[in-house]
Design brief:
Elements: H1 2-22, E1 40-45, E2 51-55, H2 65-78, E3 84-88, H3 101-110, E4 112-113, E5 150-154, E6 162-167, E7 173-177
Parallel strand pairs: 2-3, 4-7
Antiparallel strand pairs: 1-2, 5-6, 6-7
Length: 180
């Protein structure tokens, strides 16, 4: 009976942690959460009973990861969930396939064109070899007016994971979240 109660308490705290962390925004794109972007990979209890929060950066040099870890710590502390640790894992590598459909729409409304197509990784547990072949020409729609008459101005936008585009019709510049 005690084991069942302990397990229920553990499951409840993990569920609560997921709920709390759902509200942690990405520091670079505050309209989406780290969960919606797929950065938040897992919440579990370690062998020592400490709450573990597993995150994967959008790329290995992402400068926002320390801020994300601080925001997680603050959210966990504010919720009274006790001791925790943040574990950053690089494998499998993050992919834009992990961005939720709701987050893609939020990005568009925020003025960032969401990634088009799929990298084909499907889930975080799927292993897929890297292939070095050029991407086929993608049609990037303007997040403001919807026109597909756009042009890339720079390979890198406001962050390394985005490219800078401009709509030829409405003349507005916008970031495009590069698929990878």
């Amino acid at each position: 009976m005690e084991t069942t109660n302990a397990m229920e308490t553990t499951n409840a705290s993990i569920e609560r942690a997921w709920h709390v962390l759902e509200a942690v925004p990405d520091p670079e794109i505050p309209v989406v959460s780290i969960r919606e972007l797929g950065i938040l990979r897992d919440v579990r209890h370690g062998d020592d009973g400490v709450l573990e929060v597993v995150i994967t950066p959008t790329y290995s040099g992402c400068p926002a990861m320390s801020q994300i870890a601080e925001d997680i710590a603050q959210a966990i502390a504010h919720a009274g969930l006790g001791a925790h640790r943040v574990e950053t894992v690089l494998a499998p590598a993050w992919t834009t396939d992990w961005i939720s459909e709701d987050a893609r729409e939020k990005l568009r409304r925020y003025g960032i064109a969401p990634p088009t197509g799929a990298c084909g990784s499907g889930t975080a547990t799927t292993t897929k070899p890297i292939r070095f072949v050029p991407y086929k020409k993608e049609i990037i729609a303007c997040p403001r007016c919807g026109s597909t008459h756009t042009e890339r101005l720079a390979q890198f936008g406001s962050t390394a994971c985005k490219a800078l585009y401009r709509c030829v019709d409405c003349r507005e510049p916008f970031d495009y979240f590069k698929p990878y």
